Prior knowledge:
It contains 8 helices and 8 strands, in the order H-E-E-H-E-E-H-E-E-E-E-H-H-H-H-H. It has helices at about 5-15, 25-30, 70-80, 125-135, 145, 160-175, 180-190, 195-205; strands spanning about 20, 20-25, 50, 60-65, 80-90, 90-100, 105-110, 120-125. The strands form 2 sheets. A 6-stranded antiparallel sheet has the order 3-4-8-7-6-5, with helices on one face. A two-stranded antiparallel sheet has the order 1-2. It is elongated, with a radius of gyration of 18 Å. It starts with a helix and ends with a helix.
Amino acid sequence: MSIFSRIKAFIKQEPKEQIVGYSIPELKSIFTKSLLSIDPPLPAYPQNTSLEDIGIPAYYSPFLIGHEDTRKFLTLVEDNFTYATEKTFNELPVKQYVNTQKTEHLVFFISTREFNSVTVRLVTNSVDFLAIIAREKFSVPPPWIVFEGYNPSWWSGDMQGAQGYYNDNYFAPFFTNLSGAERDVYYAKFNATNEWIKSLELMYDVE
């Protein structure tokens, strides 16, 4: 079961559960415009899932970025929306933005508590904004940064726990969609060792 299927199943069982710090009734009151389909389809990462089957005409998207990309992400938000309000959820600010001209909304929060990186979780009905995020191609921080000191020979297809979650939901969807040239740039950007390069290319069967 995918992370999105688990979220939907859990929300159906617990109607008071929150998504990015908002309850389902709150999100329904924010997102009222009919949801446009994503056409053409966006790349596999960041992953997006429609919340229409729980009555919210919007998409949910979680993704991982490096600390150095936080300002760039926030700039994209400011370029496409106007700040509306915010609230606190788990001691984190959850911000709500709006584009009144397009009747589009964005609710998101960022956290630095996980994976030695920045986790972004957002809900939006703006297909254009999701496309902008996809085109930006934010790099997912690699395993040797997320799990500092982790042995590259241990990186395999049967990982569980934090490594398995990170790989299944962030790293693998991102890495396996890079071209050979993009992988070379990625390795250089994050100072990949030969051991890590060999381990990743063997595991994901890329050349």
